[in-house]
Amino acid sequence: MSTTSLVQLQHQITRCALCPRLVAHREQVAREKVKRYRDWEYWGRPVPSFGDPRARLLIIGLAPAAHGGNRTGRMFTGDRSGDWLYAALHRAGLASQPTSTGPGDGLTLHGVRITAPVHCAPPANRPTTQERDTCRPWLERELSLLAPTLRVFVVLGAFGWSALWSALAAAGHPGPVPRPAFGHGAEVAVPGRGWHVLGCYHVSQQNTFTGKLTESMLDAVLARAVALAGPELRAARPA
Question: Where do the domains of the chain lie?
């Protein structure tokens, strides 16, 4: 795996302008802002993936939040969903700290990388299937670059679940037929690769505020991912 190539891919992602609706929305949000962030210089571009370039665990979300990733320029950063995710990663020993506020905060991930099937903030947090498919080549290329070390995928929500199986098939790694259904705690092996895909409810406020997803449920999925990823991931965690 070439770290340089992975860095180059992220730079290319941040310059993407293929989806007119998403470009218009992310830039409008960055211009108009909200009162509590009126002094913040918004990122307002596609948000690159974040984490360890030699990841054994890849976490796949949905899309950046308008005033989260679209503001800070980091996946799952600056909103309540990110607060939940990074706190859980820290409890699992996979993040250096339990919070993520933005670049320069000192956060590092150990053996973990975070991405999304759509890299731009969509209106109402709802990307279209066409936008997902337009963005899919970025995920395909990232999977190819990470393939030598990857062992486990944790997918947050049905949208990302569908996107991952499509990207795997396009990259030459088709999954079981028929395509596995999404569910919290679902676990599926990718034939011929030794990879495992785990399903988890998304860490959205809609799920966490209602109790559909609890801390213990999220911790259990991450614990299973660590177990499946093998001793190399455990060794990557600081003592």
Answer: 3-236
Supply the pLDDT for residue 218. Answer: 98
Mean pLDDT score, 52-74: 98
Task: Give yes or no for a cis peptide into 103 (omega within 30° of 0).
Answer: no
Q: Spelled out in words, what is the top-level CATH class assigned to the domain 3-236?
A: alpha beta
Q: Phi/psi zone of residue 72: left (φ > 0), alpha (ψ -120 to 50 degrees), beta? A: alpha
171-188: pLDDT as tens digits: 888 889 899 999 999 999
Residues 6+ apart with CB under 8 A from 145: 1, 2, 5, 6, 9
**Helical axes 215-229 vs 80-91, angle rounded to 10°:** 50
How far is Cα 176 from Cα 190, in angstroms, rounded to an integer? Answer: 7
Neighbours of 43 (CB within 10 A): 23
Which pLDDT belongs to residue 238? 58
Q: What is the pLDDT of residues 76-97, one digit of tens each?
A: 999 999 999 999 999 999 999 9
Give the type of residue at 1. M
CB-side neighbour CA atoms (13 Å) of 34: 6
> H helices within 15-128, ranges in order?
20-32, 69-72, 80-91
